[in-house]
Amino acid sequence: MISFDAVPRITDPAHAQRLPELAVLSAMAHPDLDVAAAAIEAISMLPEDQNRLYLDVIMAKLPDVIRQVLEARMQGYEYQSEFARRYYNQGRKEGLEEGCETGLRRAVLALARTKLEAVTADDEAAIEALHEERALTELISALGQARSASEARAAFVVARLRSK
Predict the structure, then answer these.
(1) Weakest-pLDDT range from 27-36, 54-63, 118-127
(2) Which of 50, 95, 126, 163 could potentially form a cystine with 46 if both were Cys, beta carbons 3.0 to 4.6 Å apart?
(3) Is residue 143 a part of any domain in this protein?
(4) Domain for residue 87, yes or no?
């Protein structure tokens, strides 16, 4: 039987890159900053699903203090491979789009609450059904220009028709 005591302590990034799985085991057996950093660098070249799995295993075995240091380092990390940059940027773009959409929906809801006597569950469902920035922006504009509750209600009807 092999124990963690038999696993070498790998701190050399070049050695870790030659044997990334051993570097992961090393980080598990010797949970310190130098070993974990070498292992994380080594696994960065692996396919994304494998990288995520190994990173999760490494981070789970580290003491809180070391994990926090590594997480702080990774905040400003710039991905080296085109593969990683592409997926990072794709995720970032999707997050920004989702955040923008959420903000626009909140603005629609806030305006609706000021223009209508009551915002119904159907109104909220109609707002949630809108996923295009253009449609949300048009509804904000229409609600902002509405001079009465009936005009605001009409803006909802138009938005529902356009979203179908």
Answers:
(1) 118-127
(2) 50
(3) yes
(4) no
Tens-digit pLDDT profile for residues 60-113: 999 999 888 888 877 766 666 676 667 667 777 777 778 888 889 899 999 999
CA–CA dist 66, 53 (Å, integer): 19
Q: For residues 126 and 99, state if they share a domain.
A: yes
Question: Concatenated DSSP letters for 32-48?
Answer: SHHHHHHHHHHHTTS-H
Q: Is residue 89 part of a domain?
A: no
Residue 65 within any structural domain of the chain: yes
Same domain, 132 and 71: no
**Number of domains within the chain:** 2
For residues 18 and 148, give the distance between their C-alpha atoms in angstroms, rounded to a whole number: 70
Cβ neighbours of residue 80 closer than 8 Å, sequence gap 6 or more = 44
Q: How far is CA 148 from CA 55, 63, 107, 114, 153, in A?
A: 56, 60, 18, 10, 9
Length of the chain counted residue by residue: 164
**Residues 62 and 24: beta-carbon distance below 8 Å:** no
